[in-house]
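Below is how a single chain appears once it has passed through the pipeline. First comes the sequence as given, then the structure the pipeline wrote out for it. We keep one example in the README because the format questions we get most often are answered faster by looking than by reading.
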Amino acid sequence: MPEGDTVWNTARVLQRALAGARLTGSDFRVPQLAATDLTGWTVRESASRGKHLLLRLTAPTGRDAAASRRDWTLHSHLRMDGAWRAYAPGERWAGRPAHLIRVVLRSPGAVAVGYHLHELALIPTAEEESLLGHLGPDLLGPDWDPDEAVRRLAAHPDQSIGEALLDQRNLAGVGNLYKCEVLFLRGVSPWTPVGAVPDLAGTVALAQRLLAANRGRWTQSTTGVLRRGGTSYVYGRRAQPCRRCGTAIRKDELGDRVTYWCPVCQPECERRGTSTNP
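Resulting structure:
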């Protein structure tokens, strides 16, 4: 699941594979960048901001595309199904089917392949905020500010806490998995209005701790268990017994996402227009 920790890990993979390298070729397979050639460009760094991935580049002096600017950013968003993979030159690309490839970046030491990427754009680095300025504090970034995250959440007291945690304008990096797990651990129903959450700061702090704990590994675990089937408390566990009380975990819709919760450990508030699917 490409949530904030997955994107952070992906940025580190590209950093190790490409940082400092001069590109020997590029192949964009999206209409808006089909004619773009990054041959000769240098990769300065790979970074993440919430669920956004930023590959920062320096264009060669004198290139038409960089006549007025030399620092550019290749921006991509993984959403639910995007991924980057790094391969050794000559290695078989086995990450995803070939028809999902959106970009290939070649260097002397590695080949980076982007699959099913969204919002792929090449912009001047100085203009990154035009794409990212709406985001709240990044749970895994140097700008992490829990007080600001709480302030943004509290500004919409009538919104359900489940939807508020997914809103990247409040805090950047939480996805559906962490939303479900944080609220279970806090004993809060996903439908609780933000203004009724007893300890909003504690909820924010827990979200940051869970994401930070999964940096550097691809198995996302909120339980401390890494074996298959033991990594979550409620997420993906519909009809299975709650690890605390034994009640069957439920699954329902919240906005445009599904949510998982324990009806005993997370007492429900009134919900309108929803159905309960045990």
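The first helix runs from residue 4 to 18.

See the next section for the split statistics.
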